[in-house]
Amino acid sequence: MRLRRGSPTKGLEFDLEIPDGLNVYRDVPGVDLVVSAGEERDPAATVISIGAARVRSPATLPDHVRGVRERTADLDCHLVDEGPIPLAGLESWWTFDTFVAGSRSLVLERWMLVRDGVGWTASVRMPWLDIYSLRDGAIAIVSTLRFR
Amino acid sequence: MTAPAFDPATGLLTAPRDTIAALATIVTGAGEADGAAVDAALGAAGAGSLADPHPKLAAALAPMSAPIIGVRLGKTGYVMPGWVGQGRFTLHAYRGGDDDQLVPMPAEHLAHFLVWLLDIGPRPRDPRPDETTVDAAALDRAVAYRLAERPSEGLLPEPLDSAIAHRFRDWWLASSRWTPAPDAPGEIVLEAVDTDAGLWSVQRLEDGTTAIVRPVTPMSTFLALGDLLPSNHLIDAGAKRLAPDLTPVVGGPAAWVNQALAT
């Protein structure tokens, strides 16, 4: 499936290539697009999300990264690794976190970038137990992100 | 030393090192120990007794009595025993002073717990040599010196030497053993030196005198730690439990640290 998502505000747009069989959600608050293997709210699901921070447009990538981490501080993540990784032809800051939700051990991988003054975040959340079988496929989907 | 304590919500037991070691000796079936002293400590902590443990303590003890995987964690010169059984993991965590903890958790929390325990986080990404072959005894000596806060310059090739001498954070080892399925491996050992110049994995060769040190990222280290829980197909499905002689029971100071400091 090739999905073109027209953003509801500011005319922002991106393309993402999504394999058939995954659930696609377009109306999750605060997120432009959610792609999920399993139900989006199920901690056992692998969830890919693409979203822009439109309320507080950051001026710089460090501002955006700081804001994203502050907004998810309640997850009590452990930051394992981070570094610069290109995404969609732009410089992005990649982070890899682990956290526990209920009895599940989860990982959260994020790519944060700033385009035309707007901060974007692509993320993959998945159970740690699935990381060896599903991570490569999830990253392959994120890597198809293209801005229009 | 403080009074033994038990958290009925989590099953976390805090008690003197000798008490937890005796508890582990009895529960793993490794041998005899002072059960009356263990019962006294458990009773004082509100954790029941060996014969009738609090349900949360019983859950913590279950992997010890029927371990599928035996875990050894070495950190800062100390080795700690852990046990995995039927979806649960329990660790005898060594702490400063005499009061240790018996820490239970779902087995799938192991990697998350270890990155916290081993303080694995972002490190510089400066280029480093793909691998450095070193004399294993010299590496042990350099690490032991740094653990003892003694200088270690000049023992190893650069840039490893400077990283350990001036930017040392810690040394750790994580290993697990299981009853292997036919033709499958039965053990994994991960050893690393952590520095502010980055993490370095240590591979010890069978000759016993040589080690190969390679730079690794925190991400690859996290993935490797997950291998401590082997896939089911690697474990002999017919084995009722890990053999007693392969089951870890008690920990203690890593012998090689004292040996290296003595030379």
Structural account:
The complex is a heterodimer of chains A (148) and B (263). Chain A is an alpha+beta fold and 148 residues long. Chain A has a single domain (2-147), classed as Protein Transport Mog1p, Chain A, CATH 3.40.1000. In chain A, 16% of the residues lie in helices and 49% in strands. Chain A has a 7-stranded antiparallel beta sheet, sandwiched between helices. The two termini of chain A are 18 Å apart. Chain B has 263 residues and is α+β, with helices and mostly antiparallel strands. Chain B has 2 domains: 5-107, no CATH class; 132-262, no CATH class. Chain B is built from 8 helices and 12 strands. In chain B, strands 1, 2, 3, 4, 5, 6, 7, 8, 9, 10, 11 and 12 form a 12-stranded antiparallel beta sheet that branches. Classes of the chains: A alpha+beta (148), B alpha+beta (263).
How many β strands of chain A by DSSP?
Answer: 10
- The secondary-structure element order of chain A is EEEEEHEEEEHE
- What is the domain tally of chain B? 2
Could you give the distance between the termini of chain A?
18 Å
Count the DSSP helices of chain A: 2
What general outline of chain A do the C-alpha atoms trace?
A: globular
Shape category of chain B: globular
Q: What order do the SSEs of chain B take from the amino end to the carboxyl end, as H and E?
A: EEHHHEEEEHEHHEEEEHEH
Name the helicity range of chain A.
10-25%
Residue-averaged pLDDT of chain B: 94
Total DSSP helices of chain B: 8
> How much of the residues of chain B is beta strand, in percent?
25-35%
Percent of sequence in beta strands of chain A? over 45%
How many independent structural domains of chain A?
A: 1
Our measurement of the CA-to-CA distance between the termini of chain B, rounded to an integer number of angstroms, reads 33 Å
Taking the sheet with the most strands of chain A, its summary is: 7 strands, antiparallel
